[in-house]
Amino acid sequence: MPSDKHRDTAAAILPLVGGPDNVTSIAHCMTRLRIGLRDRSLVDDAALRELPGVLGLVEDDTYQIVLGPGAVARVTPAFEALVAAARQDSPAAPAAAPAAPVTADGLAARGAALRADRKARNATPVKLALRRIANIFVPLIPALIGCGIIAGLNGLLANAGLLPTLVPALAAIASGFLSLIAVFVGYNTAKEFGGTPVLGGAVAAIIVFPGVAKIDAFGQHLTPGQGGVLGALAAALLAVCVEKWCRTWVPEALDNLVTPTVTVLTAGLATLFGLMFLAGEIAAAIGAFAGWLLHAGGALAGLVLGGLFLPLVMLGLHQALIPIHTTLIEQSGYTVLLPILAMAGAGQVGAALAVYCRLPRNRSLRTVIKSALPAGFLGVGEPLIYGVSLPLGRPFVTACAGGAAGGAFVGLFNQLGSVFGSTAIGPSGWALFPLLDGHSGMGTTAAIYAGGLAVGYLVGFAATWFFGFTDRMLADLNTDGGKDPATAPPANTPAMA
């Protein structure tokens, strides 16, 4: 149950987003409360930024309030309860409010909202598909994190020869979820695309059923789990299509009998005699490519991946990597990509520290940085991105340079044979240490990752110190009344649209 603090945060947010009648949808991911709005102009951005629990604001297809991991999972249900209670108290449609006076500022705000809305609509085809895929996998992240940490603890105990009677139990706890992750993916896929969730889960369960080993497809025996989450995703999507097709011709009196049967039978046969094999080949190719990329590309591959990840986070496209991470974890027990991508957060922290040191008189900005740095060290980058580096412009580029340097460091050691990764997805920064696993032992793996973080911090700091500000920016910002980057127009902002 949410604490008083989280209920107070939810209660403070509600009027600032236009009240319950302005809210059309409520959801959350790992760090953000995502709110659908009827009228964007009713939102008070400045007041929201001042709330103690709010770490940043992001505008996309939904209005996103960055609250941080843990907090968002507690504030969201409190916010939902407040909206539901307010609507219960006033079930009738509210009377139309008197028209507000038309002002230049109001027109400008509405025009900006319309332009942002049009821009979002123009980007819909690709971004919407990526968001829907993310909506399938994001709810699974807490279980992946918990099981990943337990798997790491179990590995330490097994290697040290401690508590031998507990090791098999921990192995079962850590592996149980991963052995059935296809079922959860199938369930969430059907739910996301408008089908019956349990039918998506039923079709995806075929993939992990041990009896599939007796079935021949494409001249070879199938293997339980073949195709993994990609096969489950495809199977559930097919099930949704079959189910919707059935609804168009099956009489209502027979719907409960015919539609589920035809859906499971048709999608199940297609899964066994096509999708499992094809998805298995794609999953194998993803694993082989990731291994080849770091083995052959090494430092160069790490530099590109680490340098480009912050722009992906800024655009919300980093969620598209979740199925790839999950596939790699299914195959080898860890994803080699996540420790490299986590270096982007290190570059961001280094850049923020340089901004803090370069602007000793700007109390407002230094306060923002001090409050956001703890989350940044733990891998939550949005407060620093949207509150500091991106509005300033040049420090965002220098933060990317720090991420590229850290990624190159980790990529180089992968190329030299110290291959390692994360047993779960979600955390980064210091929070990733308990999830590290690799071929070279925990000590070496942790040392390489720590070295990458240090390189990211140092290069991000140095690049921002020397190249993050023009003389004009320093003159404008390094004062007691310096511009707040969260509200001031950015200087030399890179084009990221």
UniProtKB/TrEMBL annotation:
Any one GO biological process: phosphoenolpyruvate-dependent sugar phosphotransferase system
Transmembrane segment boundaries: 136-157, 169-187, 193-213, 257-280, 292-314, 334-356, 419-436, 448-469
Catalytic residue positions: 29 (phosphocysteine intermediate)
GO molecular function: kinase activity; protein-N(PI)-phosphohistidine-sugar phosphotransferase activity; protein-phosphocysteine-N-acetylmuramate phosphotransferase system transporter activity
GO cellular component, one term: plasma membrane
Keywords: Cell membrane, Kinase, Membrane, Phosphotransferase system, Sugar transport, Transferase, Transmembrane, Transmembrane helix, Transport
Keyword Kinase: yes
Domain PTS EIIC type-1, residue spans: 131-483
Main location: membrane
CDD domains in the record: PTS_IIB_glc
Gene3D superfamilies in alphabetical order: Glucose permease domain IIB
Annotated membrane topology: Multi-pass membrane protein
Boundaries of every PTS EIIB type-1 domain copy: 7-89
UniProt-listed InterPro entries: Glu_permease_IIB (IPR036878), PTrfase_EIIB_Cys (IPR018113), PTS_EIIC (IPR003352), PTS_EIIC_1 (IPR013013), PTS_IIB_1 (IPR001996), PTS_Sugar-Specific_Components (IPR050558)
Compartment(s) where it occurs, according to its Swiss-Prot or TrEMBL record: Cell membrane
Protein name stated in the entry: PTS alpha-glucoside transporter subunit IIA
